[in-house]
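Known limitations

Files may contain more than one protein. Parsers should not assume a single record per file. Below, a two-record file is shown to illustrate correct handling: read the sequence, read the token line, then continue until end of file.
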Amino acid sequence: MKSEIILVDDDEVLLVILEKMFHKVSPDTKLRLFSSGMEALDHLANSPITGLKRFLLLDINLKDLSGWDFLNELADRNDTNSKVILITSSVSALNSEFAKKYTSVIGFFEKPLTFDKIQRILEQIREI
């Protein structure tokens, strides 16, 4: 089954860097990049998911809405096809605990993302 990996972070420079890092670790990985949580939600709402698994790497702190707002919207839409890996520069242990309340969340990583962390993210995605 094919998968779609979506990166959502309001730091556009970081998105480009992460894209290059993902392609260095796994050259065949197909990514979609969004610098806005609303744009990513629109993409999810307007794109068919037939035979496709979706994985989102979602920054908790976005300019247009928080990662928590994003997760609440996914839950309100009953989106069970999208699995989320949260990424954050916050070191608060509360974020990790709060993330466990969402069934769509399958992982949690602190920034900066390293090649090792990206490898672990891709391995986690392949296992699902």
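...continuing to the second record:
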Amino acid sequence: MSDERNIKDPKRDKKQLITEKLIEQQKEARIVRKIVFITAIVAILLIGAVGGGGYYYIKEAMKPVEENSKKTIDVTIPIGSSTTGIGQILEDKGVIRDARVFKYYVKFKNEAGFMAGDYKMKPSMTLPEIITSLKTGKVMQDVVMKITIPEGKQLKQIAGIIAEKTKQDEEEVFKQLNDKEFIKKMMEKYPDVLTEEILKENVKYPLEGYLFPATYPFYSEKPTLEEIVTVMLTKTKKVLGDFRGQMEEKEMSTHELMTMASLIEEEATEKADRDKIASVFYNRLEDGMMLQTDPTVLYAHGEHKERVYYKDLEIDDPYNTYKIKGLPPGPIANPGVMSIEAALAPADTDDLYFLATSTGDVLFSKTLDEHNRKVNEHITDKK
């Protein structure tokens, strides 16, 4: 009789195989991280070996500079500083022993989100204590100024907010936000956020939609525009980082996501179900219908209006979704987290139309006849 243990079961649980594969991939990832860390340490060991042995060098480099010191040191971390730059600043100030050890320690621990600002640190601090301080942003300076960018604002409006807060000329701020060299510089800093798609034909303003809505604190009275935009794009990068998995699953580029999310943002009211609005947009795209969303018409006109009239729909512009199929060339405003979430996880509906009422409610319809009845019932000043 044959040994049944040697016979492979053709009905082996597929889910178990997938689980095993995932566990194996996770183990491989951990091993790769360890290899990278060890390789980096070995490189440092070779340098430190001259001073009395690599192991001793690394061990000593990870210790506090002066374990019992009560001295405080003023440390300034500029906006946009890299891990390498931060490590060098800390070494130069006498807060850590070796910038390279700090850099590889941070990478091995997968630490990120360090905050710019002015800190009071001590030579007695350990590396974990220093990293915690940098991540929580415990600054010694008070916030001098805050810039609040609400959701749904367009680049022109954001330029106005920045100009007012920094006492600059609004037109000059807007001009710099669209300067080719400035944009390229930002693209080099944030390649995973600002892709080549922002430069494609018909995009009105490359940074439109990418300056994330939030309240930003600043510790100097006159931060430069580059410092301001850097902080905003850092926030955008952090937010989008939480959605990378969903973006890959939907095979959606950053530009497509921000464009769709901006349409949802501009159509949504406080009471709106954003995931249902997203569902309507996706349903229309799937059916080969034009999106026909009024905010794109207003964006094409470059002005705000309380209502869109039939004559407004005739504008010949690549952003006018009453004239073009598919998404417009780029975002039409800066979307918030809820709109980004809706763009990635739309509701499962068959709706093809929606109508925002004067009370802030949004009514959804599956057919044009149903939609028109609701228009006649709720809209008195028809466009």
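Parsers that stop after the first record will miss the second one. For reference, the second record is described as follows. DSSP finds 15 helices and six strands in the chain.
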